[in-house]
Amino acid sequence: MFNTSDPRKDLLKNKSELSIFNEAHLGKFYEETPTLSDGEEKTWVHRGQNFYVLYSECKNGVTITRSEQLDEYAIISPNKNAHFTIEWQQTITEVRGEKVIFVPPGESVINFLDDSNIVRLITTINKDLNEVTVNNQSYNTAHHHIPPFQSWPDPVDGYKVRVYDLNVAPDGNRFGTIYRGTTFMINALDPLEGPRDPKKLSPHSHEDFQQCSLAVEGEFLHHLRWPWTENKNNWQEDQHELVHSPSITVIPPGVIHTTEAVGERLNRLIDIFCPPRIDFSKKNGWVLNADEYPLPEGDDKDE
């Protein structure tokens, strides 16, 4: 259910046919022990069905290498003071501030030129991260109601490191600031100063994909409701999860959810989808880099 002013209000709504629902997963980086730590780099690793989320706090001089990356991956740089470079195929790209970056397959190297926090998004076809992922055992058996992952078509002008600005002026005809690559869609919701109006929430659900909500600044209440099915043994209590920043919340398919910003200062949330969402991609003007990344064959052009 969307408010009449919400640009998502006319998206197709499907009646859920799920009979069993998975639990939500929370990664509260601010209170957890890092998965990987050497004093200069601290990294927390969590996952969903199709993706890993690696949140890293890195000191000036740290180098991170992906030597055998099988597909395109994404980086979110949420801090205005961030400064680092990305080297791919002997080309060095400098990144400053709040950005979304898509990095091609193959070897790439991130060199930090200042203390910076970044979030890397990598698909689970890259098996090297399985053993270091906090919640990997939750996916020993695949969640059957999520379709198998499939990358989207290559960019129209070939692979290269692509850098996009997160500081885009809000537009009432668009839902947040959305970029997509071949593997991920990233939607930076419009920042909100102070709490969200509790009379204007947007409870809804997704039929066949997970949503990963990344809190980069502020505090949020994730309201989650599991629909009743004919089997009472599968019923679950509502959850109202308070999270601070930085953290992620992975919301399962079929679960009714809405997020309420409750921080008294600036609240910033970024939604992550793997692979990209077709419905958002078909909305005219919503995906800001749509001219660089085509839709899958057989799908209609953007509306």
Automatic annotation (TrEMBL):
Highest taxon in the source lineage: Bacteria
Record-given protein name: Uncharacterized protein
